[in-house]
Design a protein that fits this description.
Largest sheet: 11 strands, mixed
Number of helices: 7
Radius of gyration: 18 Å
Mean pLDDT: 94
Structural class: alpha/beta
Strand content: 15-25%
Helix content: 25-40%
Order of helices and strands: EEEEHEEEHEEHEHEHHH
Number of strands: 11
Distance between the termini: 23 Å
Oligomer: single chain
Length: about 290
């Protein structure tokens, strides 16, 4: 059965139209999630919504417990994750209002836990292709149907924040060929892969970061204005994506991402870590 998990970013703190809606706290082995999760049914499909900054925007990008959020989504039966987030543009031809369906990342974050695994149980998961092409294509189609200007494919530079870039940093990231810049998709995408959950990222452009000579540098007031317009389309995107998803998801190569990832030998594995990873990696650790 398909269960869509939606990670809502800045400006997206709930989903309209959900039936049997219930906000519930899901316990995680990795601490507290950002907030309660919203469970319900949208156009016949089970949906679990997680406001990554919490309702009221309580968490900064660095204080979000990414591990708890992904672990709790897995424990909730989620089969696919859609990330919706605000971002800055690093390209002249990606003005505010565009939606970019990301397919690559450069991770420049440094103050976050980036793996479920660790001492006592070590694993190395491939994230060469960090998003699910099937889910990303469906998200792009849904975004277009919602009236957004959509670019399929783009490299997302994940910065630590919470401050925006200096002009020099912005210029550096442009020289690397990055398309958009944001603060929340990493380590989220890496953790989704460790949890064997297909992940798609729709990054909604709100500004030109700090590089554009002819346009004022990033100002929160302007970002909020654009974000408000984007949020309505984002909610419609979710509804249209739900309509496009099958009731039962087809098998994906991502379902077996951990098959050859765990390298700690059986006799050396920490029992406490095995228990902690029961949801994320139980499939391979019980084998």
């Amino acid at each position: 059965m398909t269960v869509l998990g939606v990670l809502g970013g800045s400006g997206v703190y709930d989903i309209a139209g959900i039936k049997n809606a219930q906000w519930k706290r899901v316990k995680s082995s990795y601490g507290e999630t950002s907030d309660e999760f919203l469970f319900g049914v949208l156009d016949g499909l089970d949906v679990v919504f997680a406001p990554r900054h919490s309702r009221g925007h309580v968490h900064s990008p660095s204080s979000i417990n990414y591990r708890a959020n992904i672990d709790a989504l897995k424990r909730s039966g989620v089969t696919d994750i859609l990330s919706v987030s605000a971002c800055g543009s690093l390209r002249e031809d990606l003005p505010p209002g565009h939606f970019v369906v990301v397919d690559q990342f450069i991770d420049r974050t440094f103050a976050r836990e980036k793996s479920f695994f660790g001492p006592g149980l070590v694993a190395h998961v491939s994230v060469a292709e960090p998003v699910c092409p099937r889910l990303s294509a469906l998200a792009a189609e849904a975004a277009r149907a919602a009236g957004a200007r959509v670019v399929e494919g783009g490299c997302y530079l994940a910065m630590e924040g919470p401050q925006f870039s200096t002009k020099a940093e912005s210029a550096l990231y442009r020289s690397w060929g990055c398309d958009v810049i944001g603060m929340t998709n990493m380590p989220e995408a890496k953790l989704a892969r460790e949890a064997e959950l297909p992940y798609a990222s729709v990054a909604m452009v709100t500004d030109y970061d700090g590089w554009h000579e002819e346009i004022a540098h990033v100002e929160v007031a302007h970002i909020l204005e654009v974000m408000h317009a984007n949020s309505a389309k984002a909610r419609d995107l979710v509804r249209r994506l739900v309509l496009a998803l099958p009731a039962t998801r087809a098998p994906s190569p991502i379902d077996t991402a951990l098959d050859h990832a765990v390298i700690t030998v059986l006799e050396a594995r920490d029992p406490a870590m095995i228990e902690k990873l029961s949801a994320v990696a139980g499939r391979v650790l019980r084998a």
